[in-house]
Amino acid sequence: MLARLSIRDIVLIERLDIDFLSGLAVLTGETGAGKSILLDAFALALGGRGDASLVRHGAEQGQVTAVFDVPKKHPASAILRENGLEDTGEMILRRVQFADGRTRAFLNDQTISIQTLKALGATLVEIHGQHDERALVDTATHRRLLDAFAGLEKDVTALEALWDARRTARNALEEHRAGMERAAREADYLRHASDELKALNPQEGEETALAERRTTMMQGEKIAEDLREAQAAVGGPQSPVSALAAAVRRLERRAGTAPSLIEPAVKAMDAAINALEEADQHLNAALIAADFDPHELERIEERLFALRGAARKYSTPVDALAALAQRYAADVALIDAGADQLKVLEKAAAAADKAYDAAAQKLSTARNKSAEKLNKAVNSELAPLKLDRAKFTTQIESDPASPGPQGFDRVEFWVQTNPGTKPGPLMKVASGGELSRFLLALKVVLSDRGSAPTLVFDEIDTGVGGAVADAIGARLARLAEKVQVMAVTHAPQVAARADQHLLISKDALDKGKRVATRVATLAKDHRREEIARMLAGAEITAEARAAADRLLKAATA
């Protein structure tokens, strides 16, 4: 429900804050006091069309903020999830209107698109008047309202799931059939290519691995040559090891005569011989490690040549050959086993069609039965609303050849305003005043089913009085037991039934140089005075006050 409405610098409204209660709230006031401005501002917060003329003269911008308490599992929550917005249970819708015509929209101080704001507003509030019957313009709404009245929402949800399953089964069948046709046209080529690639057996990443291995082997050959030369110098026939060993032996024979001269040199020469022998060992080990099979290098080069040749032939990178082989193999398998799979998919599609058709037919039958009950219930509300000669009917056109997610029924509300006249669509046949009353009767019957949590009725009692106005007030009060109702009214009979009475007035400011719209919540005594004014006009008489007392007592009886 709407908890609070705050308006800043909109037309004649400088600053206005209104706290709303549950039940029926009425807005009254003299003609021109600003009731339309208030509704225009409210509509702006709900995603209505912006207009620079809405900004108060002299202000750079105006804004409207509407605070809603939203119950769990409300349709607005789904919109929040779709847009990645947090659901806190409280929704603060704010719309800023700039003097240059631009507007900005916010939800809980997060910027949102106007489309999102409009979608949220449509789930939270319905505004109805003689010339603004938004909820009834779209005939798809009529189907939804009938389903809500009949309690068929779960059946519709189940049918939507069957529709999705039907579409999935049909898409799978069509894709398989198209694949079979494509494969059949290229059967010979596919079999040859599949066999060739199967024999080649390319692996993902194989080219890179082979190229790296080839590079390593070619580099190893060059290194081995240098290693052999070094090994020949250290341990070959030209090695100094033999000469050094002989010299050490000669010196050792002389060591006894002059040890101080000979031993340091012998020791150093022994170290040199050991170092050369160690170097020879390392060089031999390196030669063994660098050794490779020339035939392996040849095999690697042949494999690379084959892979790159296949890549050129099939106009694809080498790394994509493995995936191409799999696809060709799958296409061949599709040709070989496609007929059997086609039968399976055809059977599944037929089963999905049958399940959907059965559920759609069952739903259609339920809708037709419920339509009669809805007609009876709405028609029973018409007589007190001075529509006793009118007739409400729910037209259902069923076309199984044109199915949809919600079935194959097209639902539209029709009326016959007078006996002998041609019935037709509600929006085309009924006049403004009649349309408002038809709508009220429909809303009373539907109660809180298929309805936004807040309903706004803009002067639906225009042109009626007495018993009809009282009947309208009684129905608004009944409706307010289920949902929050706001009514802009000139009828004292309606005002007397309010749970909250708001008086809209226009006050002169700056010694009459400008005016501003004000809204006051009326206490009991002030309510009587306002209702008396509505009854009497310019001069409030004792008789008018007495009549106001009677209306108030009757409303609470």
Task: Write up what this structure looks like.
There is one protein chain. The longest helix has 62 residues, at 321-382. The model has no long low-confidence stretch (mean pLDDT 86). This protein has a 6-stranded antiparallel beta sheet with strand order 2-1-4-5-6-7, with helices on one face. Strands 8-12-13-3-14-15 form a 6-stranded mixed beta sheet, sandwiched between helices. It has a 3-stranded antiparallel beta sheet with strand order 9-10-11. The protein has 557 residues and is of the alpha/beta class. Helices cover 57% and strands 18% of the residues. It contains 18 helices and 15 strands. It has helices spanning 35-45, 75-82, 114-124, 134-137, 139-150, 153-185, 187-200, 206-235, 241-254, 259-290, 294-313, 321-382, 426-429, 432-446, 466-479, 492-495, 524-536, 542-556; strands spanning 2-10, 13-19, 24-28, 61-69, 90-98, 103-107, 110-112, 125-129, 391-398, 409-416, 424-425, 454-458, 484-488, 500-509, 514-521. A hairpin with a 2-residue loop joins β1 (2-10) and β2 (13-19). It folds into 3 domains: 1-130 and 430-521, 3-Layer(aba) Sandwich (Rossmann fold), CATH 3.40.50; 154-362, no CATH class; 523-557, no CATH class.
